[in-house]
Amino acid sequence: MKFQAPKGVSEYFPERSIAFEKVRRELISPAKLAGYKLLELPVFEDTEVFTRGVGESTDVVSKEMYTFEDRGGRSITLRPEGTAGVMRAVIEHGLDRGQLPVKVWYSGPFFRAERPQAGRYRQFYQVGIEAIGLDDPAIDAEVIAIADAGYRNLGLTKFRLDITSLGDSASRAAHREVLVKYISKLDLDEATRARVELNPLRLFDDKREAVVKMMAGAPLLIDYLTPQSASHFEKVKKYLDKLGIRYAINPRMVRGLDYYTGTAFEFVHELLGAQSGLGGGGRYDGLMESLGGQNLSGIGFGLGIDRTLLACEAEGIDLTSQSRPDLYVIPLGEEAKDFSIKFIDDLRKNGAIVDCAYGDRALKGAMKGADKSGAKFAIVIGDSEISSGIGELKNMETGVTSSVTLSAINAKSFN
Ligand code: HAM
After folding, report:
1. 59, 76, 328, 395: which has the highest count of C-beta atoms within 10 A?
2. CA distance 265 to 165
């Protein structure tokens, strides 16, 4: 019997896993510089955390959740996204009782039972941050700038940033009235009508051609912002301008989750085809209260690691080169092996990446191993090297060898 991974999951193994790890690290690093701290959370939660938090009108909740009953008869769901679980943890552990905003980051697998295709998986990976407790527009700009810096750290250039404001509850109420009137005149099927009743904004997200056409003249939320919402959005734009971050206003963007209010944004890559959303996020003013907490504002993002890796590959960015071994050691004989084990360990502790020809291979086979490893240098250690303390360090790119004192070799010898 031959097992296969479940349908639609993403898996990473060498060499691609090295690039995956690098993407994750680079996407997180700007958040750490801005004072965000790790929150490590379970990958499953009570189902209600998501039905209440993310919203019943969304595809994520209505069609895509991995929900099951555990052995105690509780309804459990594998997390389809991170924000609702973060909010559950913040409320449960009173993290919002200290200084605000609470700034956290997280990273790990997420689960959505979507139709698998390139860039869309049933288990995928995100890096996320949340800043909870203040509705200062400078935090909106900070969150967006952190995502932007992550992509730029990786060398990505062919992406754009779309932003909009989904307004506060008063803006949405005013807009909802005219939108519902507009939608009532459209020719929609039963299921779509039911979705619209839960959240009429969902129709802006409907990709079916006929619906897109019908929605072309629909009233836009951005035209119904209250003065407070409009002024918040103006400030976000002003700060982004100050940071030199370019954006396009996309008033039809509604995001796929129901909790958003105010600023919403998405990073879109030019070369990724249908699944071009690299990452996105926004403000969510009612979320905490809807999960039983105090009425605090929050903003955050989720960046897709899988799609960011695909984007790097599409732009021809090489993320694996830095993981090449600096040195490949070839011990010949038992005494050389005794020596090499300690020699290698010392070099690794000194910061060098060092691999070894294990398996007592003959010189020819071991040299092939050195080649295949991609190491920058190789060194053969036999009886004469041990007695003289001197070896021949071979530059694997040029083929040139030079005599070196073994005890003098350190991590800097390979630059
Ligand atoms: P989201 O837009 O649903 O937001 O997901 C964020 C990113 O995760 C997407 O832009 C995409 O790159 C990636 N992603 C989503 N679904 C898949 C999939 N099936 N396969 C591969 N990648 C996928 C959220 O999840 C929000 N929690 C973000 C947030 C945080 N908003 C506020 N705070």
Report:
1. 328
2. 9
